[in-house]
Design a protein that fits this description.
The complex is a heterodimer. Chain A is built from 13 helices and 1 strand, in the order βααααααααααααα. Chain A is mainly alpha-helical. Classes of the chains: A mainly alpha, B mainly alpha.
């Protein structure tokens, strides 16, 4: 036995790890490698096995306007939903962190959308967005700009998807900020008050740095959601009109299950994975260094 | 003016914002508990009715969808816990060649979830002859990197002395896991199980792809089929069905609010 309290047990170790490892390799690591291989191959046609075609699938992909639209849409979608959700979550947490009448109810209002399936959220917003019938349209018609077909207009469909995503996740991020705020020692407030520091200064120099690890976690989660959740797109717009609300995973789903074009679906998946990893790495590089661990 | 503004407590704009935030949900609730004629008519004296829920329940095989979801979630969470316990224990307390490399490889799943590899996983599950079965909707998730990670972290905090004492009494490796490690990790199990159950109750894309009949379809997929607007279904039925299918999780959350939030925090911050 070593001093770290670990015992050497080769057979036991491997046997215990094997079942879980088998499943993870069979349905995550393995398929990722297989997808990479398939993105470099051509589809077998009439008995002729498809061979290695290099980057052909990728160059075809980048010639496909619907793929380019999905890619740009997804980048914009991430660029907006991630910071907006995070800032809203922090604002909500700061708001409900102090005592006031009905605080528990308000917290519940913010958090409830998180507990709904994305499909239920989609159905609720579908109703909310319905032209002439939905509440949003009735409200905008009061101020004279009604009759916006939110989901049917290419100019607003992607924005509608963003609203839905933000509404669903901001309350979830709020609870992490709330917990982090409650972990800030009261001594710091007292010290700052003695020093005569303004609230803005305290927030900028004490609160925000202490929230660093939370922000990093929340941002990474938001980035993963931005690339891996398309339930609302499938339900509300099917990527339309004219690909205006299509995202990468939706493109993959379509290529794989509507067009049965396995190889371009594979190439699009790899683009998605690379983008997701790059953004996560970027976040760790930018925030990870400045994160203040206690 | 300044004085008037200062007199308004900060919580009033917070409340306004909160009400706007809750509006889509409140609107759906309104439409679900009133007759269709009042769906978008805000008359405080509108008659309240539960008929929409009954009608929605009868308009599609929701009872079966419920059963499918319950089976899917219990199957998935149970096996996730079993596999993660075994692996988490080995990673926490045993030393064997290749351990750290293997651990790192498994953690890939924390970022790349099996559901984005759906095209390949669909081929694999079909090849195994399992397409359109309830287990198929859970199988890709049975090995859970998150579960392994959480349990490993927790097992490492358990005092070595307890383990040694059990060993001196002749307890086997698995006996110690069962009698010492697992009982002391109850909190982690609850946290992981609640988080995972919520995830799989709400999961949509993978079940959509792999299930293709009433006897396997979970609630989310059933709801999506029901809620597609060109079906010509009345909104009051759609909103009632939406609330119905979210109700079990929402009610569980309202009762065990603290446990849920604590679990999410525990799993999230890790």
């Amino acid at each position: 036995m070593s001093e770290t309290g670990e015992e050497r047990n080769v057979l036991g170790g491997w046997l215990l790890v094997l079942p879980a490892a088998l499943f993870i390799f069979a349905f995550t690591n393995g398929p990722l490698l297989a997808t990479l291989a398939s993105s470099l191959a051509a589809a077998p046609i009439a008995g002729h096995g498809g061979g290695f075609v290099g980057l052909q699938n990728y160059s075809d992909l980048f010639d496909d306007p619907s793929f380019l639209t999905s890619l740009l849409n997804n980048l914009l979608y991430a660029l907006i939903t991630v910071p907006v959700s995070v800032v809203l979550a922090l604002a909500m947490a700061l708001g409900v962190n102090r005592a006031f009448p009905g605080r528990a109810t308000l917290r519940l209002f913010f958090f409830l959308p998180t507990m709904l399936p994305m499909i239920a959220v989609g159905a609720i917003w579908l109703f909310f967005f319905t032209p002439q019938y939905g509440l949003l349209d009735r409200a905008t018609s009061l101020i004279g700009s009604g009759d916006i077909n939110w989901l049917g207009d290419p100019d607003t469909a992607l924005a509608a998807m963003m609203m839905v995503a933000i509404w669903k996740q901001a309350g979830f991020f709020m609870i992490f900020y709330l917990a982090a705020l409650q972990n800030i020692p009261p001594v710091l407030h007292e010290a700052a008050a003695l020093e005569g520091a303004s609230r803005a200064y305290f927030f900028r120099r004490v609160t925000l740095p202490l929230l660093g690890p939370t922000t990093l976690f929340v941002m990474v989660t938001a980035v993963i959601n931005a690339f891996c959740v398309v339930d609302h797109v499938i339900e509300m717009t099917q990527g339309g009109p004219d690909n205006a609300s299509s995202l990468l995973l939706y493109y993959v789903y379509n290529a794989g299950f509507r067009d049965w074009d396995i190889n371009s679906a594979a190439a699009a998946t790899i683009v998605l994975v690379v983008l997701l990893s790059a953004l996560a790495a970027l976040l760790f590089a930018v925030f990870g260094r400045r994160v203040h661990y206690r | 003016m300044r004085r008037i503004l200062a007199a308004i407590p900060l919580w009033m704009p917070m409340w306004l914002f909160g009400l706007i935030w809750a509006l889509p949900l409140l609107y759906a609730i309104w439409s679900a508990v009133h007759p269709p004629d009042y769906s978008t008519v805000f008359d405080p004296f509108a008659p309240v009715t539960w008929r929409n829920f009954a009608d929605a329940w009868n308009a599609a095989p929701f009872a079966r969808y419920f059963l499918n979801t319950v089976l899917l979630v219990s199957f998935t969470v149970f096996f996730q816990c079993v596999l993660a316990t075994l692996a988490g224990f080995a990673f926490a307390r045993l030393r064997f060649p290749g351990r750290d490399l293997l651990f790192a490889a498994l953690l890939l799943q924390l970022m790349i979830s099996p559901s984005i590899l759906l095209v390949w996983n669909y081929r694999e599950i079909s090849w195994l002859g399992l397409a359109n079965t309830i287990p198929a909707m859970g199988i890709p998730y049975l090995g859970s990197a998150l579960g392994i990670f959480l349990l490993r972290q927790n097992f490492r905090t358990i005092p070595r002395e307890l383990d040694d004492a059990a060993r001196l009494e002749g307890c086997s490796l698995l006996g110690r896991l069962w009698k010492v490690y697992m009982p002391l990790s109850r909190g982690t199990y609850v946290a992981f199980a609640l988080t995972s159950a919520a995830y799989h109750w709400n999961d949509f894309l993978w079940p959509l792809v792999i299930s293709d009949s009433v006897t396997t379809r979970p609630l989310t997929v059933g709801l999506e089929i029901f809620a597609t607007p060109d079906q010509g279904v009345q909104w009051s039925l759609v909103t009632a069905a939406t609330l119905l299918s979210s109700a079990p999780l929402l009610i569980a959350f309202l009762i065990f609010q603290r446990q849920f939030v604590q679990s999410f925090l525990r799993v999230g911050i890790r």
